[in-house]
Every structure is written in C-alpha cells, then in structure tokens.
C-alpha cells in the first residue's frame, strides 16, 4: 500500500487516508471522487491568481493547493476543539482545506508556515 498523500477529517472524529475517500470506498454512492487521480488524492498545483479558473479560496500566488480544493481554511490547529473535535498534535500545523466534495482535508507535509512547498 502506498503512503497517503492526504488525510480526511470526518465530523465523527475519524481520520481516513486519501485512498479510502478518493477511491469511493467511504463515499455514500461508492463511486470514486471525480477529482481523484485514479482513486488517490490528486497532485498539488501552484496557485496562480492570474490563471484562468483561479479560485480565490485556494490561497495566494505561489501557494501549493489541491486542484480539488474549494477553500483554504488556515492551519488545522486553528480548528482544534471546533465542534468538540480534537486532532493529533502532529497534524495541527498543516494547511486545512475544504475539498469540492465538502470534506475537510490536510495534505501531509504542506505546512501553514511555508505553503509554497511540501516537506
């Protein structure tokens, strides 16, 4: 099994790797996400505010973002204890996105402190 590219944070407190969500295993209809890369989380893009199709919620020019991101929500730590959810400490500095399927997702290695590269 390949290492996950991203983790999905469900309201019930569970955290799932991208292969289970993007592939459709955990979707209500059992279908892969239309934005997935063969059932996996898609490769990141570099935000360009001048590009056609730019969506302002993804971040600033130069930031790395999932192409399926609807909104960048800051770092996960900002949301610690929101709706009584707690997240693992090592995930708190990661950038949090809401994907186009309305799930919360963090990209492993993409930190709020340096959104231009994955470490």
Enumerate the strands of the largest sheet in spatial order, edge to edge or round the barrel.
2-1-7-6-5
Which structural class should the secondary elements be placed in? mainly beta
Radius of gyration using CA atoms only: 14 Å
What integer is the average pLDDT? 94
Could you give the distance between the termini?
21 Å
Oligomer kind: single chain
Order of helices and strands: EEHEEEEE
Low-pLDDT segments: none
Give the overall form. Answer: globular
Strand residue content: 25-35%
- How many beta-strand segments? 7
Helix content: under 10%
The biggest beta sheet is recorded as:
5 strands, antiparallel
Q: What is the count of DSSP helices, taking H or I runs of 4+ residues?
A: 1
List the helices and strands and how they pair.
Elements: E1 6-9, E2 15-17, H1 18-22, E3 45-46, E4 64-65, E5 69-75, E6 94-99, E7 104-111
Describe the structure.
It is a single chain. This protein has 119 residues and is mainly beta. Helices cover 4% and strands 27% of the residues. It is built from one helix and seven strands. The strands form two sheets. Strands 2-1-7-6-5 form a five-stranded antiparallel sheet. Strands 3-4 form a two-stranded antiparallel ribbon. A hairpin with a 5-residue loop joins β1 and β2. The radius of gyration is 14 Å and the shape is globular. The model has no long low-confidence stretch (mean pLDDT 94).
């Amino acid at each position: 099994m390949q290492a996950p590219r991203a983790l999905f944070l469900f309201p019930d407190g569970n955290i799932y790797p991208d292969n289970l969500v993007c592939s459709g295993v955990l979707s209500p209809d059992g279908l892969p996400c239309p934005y997935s890369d063969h059932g996996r989380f898609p490769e990141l893009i570099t935000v360009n505010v001048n590009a056609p199709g730019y969506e302002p919620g993804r971040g600033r020019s130069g930031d790395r973002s999932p192409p399926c991101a609807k909104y960048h929500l800051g770092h996960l730590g900002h949301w610690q204890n929101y709706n009584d959810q707690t997240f693992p400490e090592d995930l708190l500095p990661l950038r949090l996105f809401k994907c186009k399927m309305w799930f919360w997702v963090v990209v492993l290695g993409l930190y709020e402190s340096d959104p231009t590269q994955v470490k």
